[in-house]
Amino acid sequence: MIEITNATKRYGGKAVVDHVTAELKEGRLTAFIGSNGAGKSTLLSMISRLLKMDEGEIAIDGTGVHDWNQEELAKRISILRQTNHMNLRLTIRELVSFGRYPHTRGKLNEEDHKKIDEALSYAGIFHIQDQYLDQLSGGQRQMAYIAMVIAQDTKYILLDEPLNNLDMKHSVQIMKILKKLVEDLGKTVIIVIHDINFVSCYADDILALQNGRLVKAGEAKQIIDSQVLSRIYDMNIHISNIDGKDICVYYT
Questions:
Q1: Residues contacting 188, CB < 8 A, separation 6+
Q2: What is the pLDDT of residue 251?
Q3: Distance of alpha carbon 214 from alpha carbon 222, whole angstroms
Q4: Cβ distance 115 to 87 under 8 Å?
Q5: What is the pLDDT of residue 89?
Q6: What count of Cα atoms within 13 Å lies in the side-chain half-sphere of residue 243?
Q7: Smallest Cα–Cα separation from 178: which of 144, 207, 150, 217?
Q8: What's residue 176's pLDDT?
Q9: pLDDT of 252 higher than 90
Q10: 0.90 cut: is pTM over it?
């Protein structure tokens, strides 16, 4: 479990994350939602120790995030950031193999190659593993980075807006993969995401942020509500049930 207690981050005296307290349950897909500037990515960066808190505490499996040994933390938590593209000319397989670095420090063994094969297959890109990243479409490239995170084989997987600039097909593929990681492998996935309908269809739990503060947290079915969402996004949002899924309508 990840326990967040009064987590606060300030820039220039302004709190971009303001005393947030929450629990992120294991074996669930949890979505951070809210408008731009709500503090979602900042909170995710503090959980992964990429960003230091000004106040509060975040504990991962009972140990404060800053008390973890770096190598051990990298075996427990993986993160895919918004800006993750490399300038090196790498094949897909070479990129995915980087996910094994916390375990082997670059000296790959048979078990590592097995994990890499599994990750490539899971992401549906095993057949193009020898292609170079600069030969790929944006969706294929993002799949490669998702596979790298899968190969790291951590208990917690953190993703910061992984659907940005992707077409519908690749967005759906990625959400299905993330859901399978939870359901089939028992992973805990935490995702910053803007598309509220993907949240409604795939998330188990939701943390809703507004101006750095936690507005509401709970199961997705509790948050995907017209009144709750209208307050979070400051606009009218209607909920329609289509084929058993609650779909948000907000374009009128």
A1: 2, 24, 25, 26, 27, 28, 30, 155, 156, 157, 182
A2: 73
A3: 15
A4: no
A5: 84
A6: 2
A7: 150
A8: 96
A9: no
A10: yes
Residue 85: which pLDDT band, with cuts at 50, 70 and 90?
A: low
All residues at 6 or more sequence positions from 200 whose CB lies less than 8 Å from its CB, including other chains: 220, 224, 245, 246, 247, 248
Euclidean distance between CA atoms 66 and 79, whole angstroms:
16
Residue 84's pLDDT is what? 67
CA 47 from chain centre, in angstroms, equals 11
Q: Is the dihedral of CA 29, 61, 15, 221 positive or negative?
A: positive
- What are the tens digits of pLDDT across the range 142-197? 999 999 999 999 999 999 999 988 999 999 999 999 999 999 999 999 999 999 99
Residue closest to 188 by CA, chosen among 78, 70, 58:
78
Q: What is the DSSP string of the chain?
A: -EEEEEEEEEETTEEEEEEEEEEE-TT-EEEEE-STTSSHHHHHHHHTTSS--SEEEEEETTEEGGGS-HHHHHHHEEEE-S----SS--BHHHHHHGGGHHHHTT---HHHHHHHHHHHHHTT-GGGTTSBGGGS-HHHHHHHHHHHHHHH--SEEEEESTTTT--HHHHHHHHHHHHHHHHHH--EEEEE---HHHHHHH-SEEEEEETTEEEEEEEHHHH--HHHHHHHHTS--EEEEETTEEEEE---
d(CA 212, CA 177): 29
